[in-house]
Specification:
193 residues, Four Helix Bundle (Hemerythrin (Met), subunit A), 0% strand
Length: 193
């Protein structure tokens, strides 16, 4: 079989799929890190969305309070406290992705997300009974809280996947380093002492 080289340096006998796989990184650890970075970007986008939903909830609550139709006993600053918690979680996840599989940071991220989800769930369950004949489906605050709960469930799944990928990338074997000439290291046998 002839293997004449093409102008791009790939032997002509290789199929396009073989050529593409030959250009892939040799270590799955590199792949895991790249995918972990994508997971982090998606997570940060979800948390930014939660912050936006919480801002909308704060606006809704202010309007209800001003008009005297407020159905909540929570302080008006409550959505902003949740926003701060979501931003802290985002910072923890960034630090985790930068440092690799750091067990303390991973545990902190899990605890922060659990607390955030718990606060939102408690707010949803604390909804007082219907007032003035309106149904919960027509309450914009309840709809926003349900959306936030849904997004946080997705965040939990993605956060678990991110932590798992970071753990996997740390377990992947490191590629053998080459010497200055680009040659792989050679085992040197020293005589016993």
């Amino acid at each position: 079989m002839a293997t004449a080289s093409r102008s791009d340096g790939i032997p002509a006998s290789r199929t396009p799929q073989a050529a593409a796989s030959a250009q892939q990184p040799a270590t799955s650890g590199d792949d895991s890190l790249a995918v972990a970075r994508q997971d982090l970007d998606t997570l940060l986008g979800d948390l930014a969305g939660v912050c936006g939903q919480l801002e909308e909830l704060a606006t809704t609550w202010r309007r209800e309070h001003t008009s005297g139709t407020s159905r909540r006993q929570l302080p008006l600053a409550f959505p902003h406290c949740l926003q701060s918690a979501a931003r802290r979680l985002a910072g923890t996840l960034k630090a985790l992705a930068e440092s690799g599989p750091e067990p303390d940071l991973a545990a902190s991220a899990v605890a922060q997300l659990a607390a955030l989800r718990s606060e939102v769930a408690a707010t949803v369950s604390d909804r007082p009974g219907q007032r003035g004949g309106s149904t919960p489906g027509h309450d914009p605050g309840t709809a926003l809280l349900a959306g936030i709960e849904h997004t946080l469930s997705r965040v939990m799944t993605r956060q678990q996947r991110l932590i798992s990928r970071l753990d996997h990338s740390a377990e992947a074997p490191a590629p053998a380093s080459a010497d200055a000439r680009g040659e792989p290291p050679v085992a040197r046998h020293e005589p016993p002492r």
